[in-house]
Design brief:
Length: about 110
Amino acid sequence: MKYSDVALQTFVLSEIQENCYVLSLCGRNDCVVIDPGIDPFKVVDSIKSAGRTPSAILVTHGHFDHICGIPAIKAIWNDAPIYIGEKDRSKLANPLENLSFGFGSPFKTAESAV
């Protein structure tokens, strides 16, 4: 595989300016969504318009600005598993741990991770 075989889209989302990425191999219809943060609708629209299907959601760490978009992705592509480190897994369901509680918008997702 060469660098030219890989397509990487970067999305800067919300006022917090978190980065979300969509990674795919040229010539394939699947992709990986990395850190689907706040306001993921640009990401969803881009994936749909490219005719892609997320084969996985990767989360680099469990802070709310990296996980809030998971429900929007899973609502459309429910089969995409979520991958997050073992030490951050509890942050998916705990607003204190994912820091959303301190920002006045407690967030948790019922989605389970691999």
